[in-house]
Amino acid sequence: MDIHNLLKKYYGYDEFRKGQEEIINNILDKKDTFAIMPTGGGKSICYQIPALVMEGITLVISPLISLMKDQVDSLNSLGINAGVINSTQSTEKVRETMYKASNGELKLLYVAPERLDSEAFFMLLQTLEVSQVAIDEAHCASQWGHDFRPSYRKISPFIKRLKPRPVISAFTATATIEVKNDITNILELRSPEVFVTGFDRQNLEFITYKNENKRDFILDYLNNNKDKSGIIYAATRKEVENIYTLLSKKDISVGKYHAGMDDLERKENQEKFLYDDIKVMVATNAFGMGIDKSNVRYVIHYNMPKNIEAYYQEAGRAGRDGEDGECILLFSPRDVVLQKYFIEQTVFSTDRKISEYRKLQSMVDYCYTTKCLRKYILEYFGEEDVKDKCDNCSNCKDSSEVVDITIDAQKIFSCVYRIRERYGVTMIAEVLRGSKNKKVLNLAFDKLSTYGIMKNYTIKEIKDLVNVLVAERYLLQTEEEFAVVKLTNKAINVLKNNEKVMQKVHKKKKAVKVDNSLFDILRNIRKEIAKRESIPPYIIFTDLSLREMSKKIPLNKVEMLEIKGVGEKKFEKYGEEFLEKIIEYNDENNIRNLEEAALDSDKSKEKDKKKKTPSHVVTYNMFSKGSSIEDICSERDLKDSTVKEHLLKCGLEGLEIDWDMLIPEEKEKIILDTIKEINSYRLKEIKEKLPEDIDYSTIKAVICKHKAV
Ligand code: ADP
C-alpha cells in the first residue's frame, strides 16, 4: 500500500509533516538514515510506516521502559501489531512476545539496548527477517550528549551479527555537530542521509516575565486555566513542596514529583497525571524524561533553568499533539544566584565549569532580551536565516503598558542609600512603609527621612517593586544567603534625575470564555475508555482530534474519518462511542441536520475523488510543463530522490515519461549490461554489482524504460 494511504488509514492524517516523506522513502530505499527532528515533530511515523511496508520485523531500540510501553499501546490502538520486551516483565510475558514475533505476528518489536546482550534474544532474531533497526533517542550513544547510555555502544556490534544487515535509522531531537558525528561513528551508520528538519515548534508560545510576583502569577494563571493539563517546574525540592502546598490549599488538582520522594509515590503521581486524574504537576527537573503525554497545554518555569538546552527540552513538553502550548518562564535575579551555586557544587573540571557558566549566561540573556524569543532559541541551536519576528512570543506580541514609576523608584533608591546598602528587601519595605517593628526602631531607622514615605503601599507591594528594580538591574542583590540590596550606576542616574524608570506592566491574559461543553463531554468519554482499557487518554485520541470534533461536529463515519488523527482502525475501536455522544449533543442543541450531513459527506467524497491530486501527479504535471527536477525539488521542498520516485510512479501508472530525462546517458549502458549479466530485475542484486554512485531511482528508471520498449 502507498505510504500516503497508510498514513491516512492507520494514523488518520492527510499529509506528511516536514521531512517525514523523504525520511520514509530513504529508509524504504534501504539507505541508512539519521534524522534530527524537534520533539513532537513526528519521528515515530518515520520508522513505523517503513516497518509496515517492508517484509519482516522492525526492531526499535529505545532507552526508556515507560516510553516503549506508551508507543506500543499507541500502535496497538492504531491496529498495528507491536510488542515490547523489557526487564520488568515476567519470563512468561517475554516468552509470549517472543513467540508472537517468531510467528510473524509483530511488525515492530521494542527493546531496551541492554536486551542486545541476551543470546536467547539474538537466536530469536536470527529466525526472523529483521528489515530495519530503528534507534530512538540516538544521542544516548554519544558521551557528549546529555543522556549518555553505555549500553547504546552494544548496538553496532549486535547489528554486525545480523545477517543480512538490516537498514538502520537513527532519530534524535538534539544533536550538536559533535554529537552528530559521534552518533554516526558509534552506530556505524553507512554513509547515512542526514535529515535535519529544524528545531522550531510553531505551536508553542514563548513567554518570559521578569517582574511578576510568582505566587500571585501562578494562582491567577491556574484560576484562568482550570481545565488544562500543565507542568510547573521549580529549581529545588523545597520550592516544589512550597508551591504544592500553596496550590493544594486552593483546592487545585495538583501532584508533585521530585527525587526526594519514594519511588512508589512518584510513580503514582506520574500515573495520575498521565491519566488526567490530576491536572497540574509541580516538579523538579527529575520529572519528564520518558513522559510522552501529548496534551500538556502549558509548562511554567517557576525558576530559570540552568541553560537553554534544558529549558527547551522541558518547555518542549507542552503541545506535543500539535495544539497550542504556552511556555512561561518566571524570572527573578535570585534564580541566577541559585544556578551559580549549583555549578559551584559540582565536581566538574574548571573547563567544564566555565562552559556551564557560559551556558548560564545565555540563559540569563534570554530572560533579558527584547528581541524575538523564538529567534533567540533557534539561533542558539545554530539555525540560520530565522525570521526576525515570530508573532508568537511575549516580545513579538508585547501587550504590556508602560508606566512611569520614577518617583517610587527614587524613594526606594534613597532608602537603600540611607540604610547604607546593608539590608535586604524586607527591611527596605518596612522602613518605607513606616513599620514599628522592633528591629527598625532599634536601628533608629524611624528617624530617617525615607521612613514611612510609602505608607500607602502594602509591604508586599513595596517588595514586589524592589524586585522589579532588581530584575531591571537598577538594584543589585548580593549572592549570600541573606542577600543585601545595593544600588547600581543606573540607580544613581535616576537619583540625579538624569533618567526615568519605566515599568512594563503586563496586561493579564484573561481566559477567553469559549464554549467547551462538547469538548468536555468528549474528554469525559475518552477518560472512561482509558480507564476501561488501562491506557492513558491521549493515546485514544489527542486533544487536537477532540477539539476538531467539537468544532466540526461530525455526524457519520465519513465525516469522522476526516478528523485529524482518526484512522480506520481507531474508528472501528472507538469511533461509534464518540459519534453517539456527538449526535446526542447535536440533537439537544439543534446544530446540524443529520440527513444533510449524510448528503454533504457523499458530495465531499465525490469532490475528494475529483479534486485531490496525488503528490506524485503534482510532480508529474510540473515536469511535463517543463520544470526541471531541480526546480521541482526547490519549489516543493522535496529531495531529488523523492521527485524521481514520483516520476517513476507515474511512469508505472502508465503516464508518458521521457525516461532519458531521468537517466544519465553514461549510466544507462552499464546498468543494462549488469541486468543482462545477472539475468534478473531484482533491484538489490543489480545495485550491489554497480558503482556506489548509481542510485535506486536511476536503476528503476532504466528498468521501466527497458520494459516499456
Ligand atoms: P516525536 O517522537 O518526534 O516527539 P511523535 O512521533 O510522538 O513525535 O509525534 C508527535 C505527534 O504528532 C503525535 O501525536 C503524532 O501522531 C503527530 N503526528 C506525526 N505525524 C503527523 C502528521 N503527518 N500529521 C499530523 N500529526 C502528526
UniProtKB/TrEMBL annotation:
Its EC number is 5.6.2.4. Its cofactor is Mg(2+); Zn(2+). Residues 512-592 form the HRDC domain. PROSITE patterns: HELICASE_ATP_BIND_1, HELICASE_CTER, HRDC. It catalyses: Couples ATP hydrolysis with the unwinding of duplex DNA by translocating in the 3'-5' direction. GO terms for molecular function: helicase activity. It comes from the Bacteria. It comes from Clostridium oceanicum. This is DNA helicase RecQ. Residues 214-361 form the Helicase C-terminal domain. SUPFAM superfamilies: HRDC-like (SSF47819), P-loop containing nucleoside triphosphate hydrolases (SSF52540), Winged helix' DNA-binding domain (SSF46785). Keywords: ATP-binding, DNA damage, DNA recombination, DNA repair, DNA-binding, Helicase, Hydrolase, Isomerase, Metal-binding, Nucleotide-binding, Zinc. Pfam families: DEAD, Helicase_C, HRDC, HTH_40, RecQ_Zn_bind, RQC. Belongs to the helicase family. RecQ subfamily.
